[in-house]
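Hi support team,

I'm filing this because I wasn't sure whether my run with nickel (II) ion finished correctly. The job status page said complete, but I'd like someone to confirm that the output block is well-formed before I use it downstream. Pasting the exact inputs I used:
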Amino acid sequence: MPVLPIARMGADVLKRRAEEVTDFKDPSLPALVDNMLETMTEARGVGLAAPQVSVPKRIVMFFVPAERNKGVEVPLTVMINPVITPVTQEQDEGWEACLSVPGLTGEVPRYTAIKYRYQDLSGATVEREAEDFHARVVQHECDHLDGILYPMRMSDMKSLAFVDVLETEARARGETLDLDEEGRNPE
Ligand code: NI
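And here is everything the job wrote out:
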C-alpha cells in the first residue's frame, strides 16, 4: 500500500467539485481506500478526502480520538457520496488544520450539530448524527468534495497562523499551546 502524495492548496483538483461514485464493484475502489488510509496515517491526520490525493471522487475518511469527543471515540469511517444536513443554525468557532494547507491553523465556524448520510464500500446507505468535533471533522472533509478549503470558511482571517509561530509565542509567554485542541491533527 503506497503512501500517496498530498495535493496542496492551489492544486486544481482541490478547487473542483468531485464526482459521485456510482460503481461500487470497481476494483480500484478498495485499493484507493487502503492507500488513503496509509497516507492519512503516515501524515498523522484525522481525516482525508480523495481530492487531497488527486482523485476527484466523493470519498472521504476520518476518525475521532476519544479525547477530542468527550471520551467517545468515533472509529475509522469511510464515507462515499456523503451528504450533510445541519440540525441547528448554531455555529462554533474552532481551530482547524489541513494536510493540504501544511503548517497553518485557523479558527473556522462550523455547525455544532449535523446529520449525515453516506454509502459504505458495499454501497449500503448509513445515517448518523454528530456534534462538536465529530461534526466539525465531517464538515471539513465534505467541504473538500466541493472544492472548499477551511480558510475559505473563516470569518476572521486574523486567526490564520503558522502553528510553529503560535508555539514559539506561547513558549515566550511561559505557556504551552494545547495543540490537541488547536489544530494539531490536520484533516
Ligand atoms: Ni483538509
